[in-house]
Amino acid sequence: MMDHEEDFLNLFFTQVSQLNFEKAKELAERERESSKPGHSGPWGMLLTHLPQIAVAEHSYVDLGFLLPKNKGFLRKDNSLRSMYESSRTDFRRLEDMAKLACSDRTIITVANQLVQFCTARIELIDFYERMHLMGSGKLMKYEDLLAQIDNIVDKHALSFPHMVLTSIKAALSLECEILTHLLRSQLEMQMWRFLQSLMQLHGAHTRITAWERTLQNRESWKLGFGATFLKTNQLPALFQWLLKLKAAFVSKFSLYFYTTLAQQTQDMKMFTSKLTTDYYHKIQSFQRRNDAVAVLLVFDAHELEDYAGPGYHHPDKVTEPVHDMECYPIVVSYPVKPLNHMVNIVNVLTERAADLAAMDRVVFSFSAKEQSTYVMALCDPRMSLVVIFDSKKTEKDTHITNFVFDMSLQLRCNKVFANLKLSTK
Q: Which Gene3D superfamilies does this UniProt record tie to the protein (predicted)?
């Protein structure tokens, strides 16, 4: 292939990766019009199909695959998935045609690798749709989601490596790495592992920053300034949603590891107030308004062989297995650690385990001996939110039920996934 054609393809896909979709389409149209009659074969066919990639990518970053499907009897499927499937078919046909015509090897290679790219996009569309659907359920199955995104990454690790496709390969890789780090951070948080959770969140942050940096190279953005510029040149919906997901996870991290983090700063309140959700402040406000003895999170380390306790632990440090009450450490508590109530709390956690595991109810338990009520719900499979009162409370106290239910649900982060579709508006 001539240098001109390779330069054109490199520029086209760079514009697509930087979200300059209209410019990319204009480049393809101009190149098609200026091509010599002798280039009307495979090269001309490639130029004809390229604008469709720009259109599909534009819709993809705006989460167009979550829009209602316009499909029915005698009606063409206009979904984004079908758009990528159509492009994949076109590039397969182009590859076959180029082979028969003994065309330049680069055209054959690029066509083949664009088939791979379309396949990766289709698989990612399925992945986002699954996350959205799962967000409407009781519990996010992060293990399943992580396995799916890992499979996509492994499958396409060596896909579309041609130099002219470097920019779109880099963007897709960053997107997958962000998702992988964020999902893995949740698995680590569920197991109350501080350093591992922190490293995964940091990994997501660095890749989000890198992706944002490539987007900020957009020529159309360089002309704008001030508030008007920010309103009319917003980041795409997909990127904004990933930012929201990271923010939700960081807020959760700040509560699960509040005690550890508070040891590193004199003003934890200032840091948590800047988060999307200040869970600790919510706990404080509820406790004060309702005169609760304590509001706390309790971790269940029962049968966890690698449990080492909160905070950072050297990987070579030998940890002794925990037993009995040590299996239920207090993660965070306000205003005090109710150590004298822990036996009762653990008893309720074990006796009402089936009710709690349903993830759709708040458990009330009154101790006549202690004249105390324990209200609890699961935030994660091993993490429980517990509220203690020194008087009898029941399910009729809806403000208590609502707080515990809503707080535990919010900490599961389902809503961020369920709101994926709202991000398309």
A: 1.10.3450.30
19: phi then psi, degrees, rounded to nearest 5 = 70, 20
Asked whether the CA dihedral 47, 48, 51, 56 is positive or negative, the reply is: negative
Domain that holds residue 139: 3-230
User: CB–CB of 200/188 below 8 Å?
Assistant: yes
Q: Check whether residue 47 and residue 146 sit in a common domain.
A: yes
CATH of the domain at 363: 3.30.450.240
pTM: 0.91
Q: Which two tokens stand for residue 212?
A: 């944002």
Q: 402 and 356 in one domain?
A: yes
What does each of the 425 residues of the chain score in pLDDT, given as a tens digit? 568 889 999 999 999 999 999 999 999 999 988 876 655 689 999 999 999 999 999 999 999 988 765 555 444 556 899 999 999 999 999 999 988 887 778 899 999 999 999 999 999 999 999 999 999 888 899 999 999 999 999 999 989 999 999 999 999 999 999 999 999 999 999 999 999 999 999 999 999 999 998 886 655 444 444 444 444 357 899 999 999 999 999 999 999 999 999 998 888 989 999 999 999 999 999 999 999 999 999 999 988 777 777 766 677 777 766 677 888 999 999 999 999 999 999 999 999 999 999 988 999 999 999 999 999 999 999 999 999 999 999 999 999 999 999 999 999 999 999 998 765 55
Is the distance from CB of 152 to CB of 122 less than 8 angstroms?
no
First to last CA, the chain: 43
